[in-house]
Design brief:
Blueprint lengths: L2 E7 L6 H12 L5 E5 L14 H6 L5 E4 L4 E4 L6 H8 L4 E5 L8 E5 L13 E4 L5 H4 L5 E4 L3 H11 L1 E4 L2
Parallel strand pairs: 1-5, 1-6, 2-5, 6-7, 7-8
Antiparallel strand pairs: 1-9, 3-4
Length: 166
């Protein structure tokens, strides 16, 4: 299978992580899934700065922490989609949460209102019943039911971009 990627975006608290989690759980019986999460405020803490990997990272070195069950990478610069896709391989489907600057098909999650600032970057909206159909009827976007993971998965297979053809 080709390696496919799609982005999930939306305002804080809209349910991006929850949707990606649901999709991942549903897909994992047949496909391998990788996820890239954007940390725009650089606030995620992965290690104690007083532990070995934190101390190594403080020397300005890039650090990989490797075990039989997991690899964690700490880098001092950003990585491209294709760099990370290579690093995360093998996978069938890659979800990217956020990262509007990456040119990917993008599903925006909206609840209660459609945020106009997202419209230039997205190709679909996943909404719940807090947004009425007539509020999105005139948009030239695909409209998905946020609570219908099967519908969203079908959309992903039709619209995701190939990042590493195998």
């Amino acid at each position: 299978m080709k390696q496919l990627a799609i982005a999930i975006t939306g305002p804080s608290g809209s349910g991006k992580t929850t949707l990606i989690e649901k999709l991942s759980l549903e897909l994992r019986s047949k496909y391998s899934v990788a996820i890239i999460k954007h940390d725009p405020k650089d606030k995620a803490i992965f290690d104690n700065p007083n532990k070995d990997s934190g101390r190594f990272f403080a020397t300005d070195a890039d650090v990989a922490v490797v075990s039989d069950k997991r690899t964690t990478l700490f880098k001092h610069n950003g990585s491209s989609l294709y760099d990370l896709a290579t690093l995360l391989s093998p996978f069938d489907i890659l979800f990217v949460e956020g990262l509007k600057e990456w040119d990917l098909p993008r599903i925006a999650i909206f609840r209660n209102s459609v945020e106009q600032s997202y419209l230039p970057y997205i190709c679909a909206i996943a909404k719940d019943d807090t947004i009425k159909d007539e509020e999105v009827a005139n948009l030239d976007l695909d409209i998905l039911d946020l609570n219908n993971t099967k519908e969203i998965i079908e959309y992903i297979f039709r619209n995701a971009v190939v990042v590493n053809p195998l």
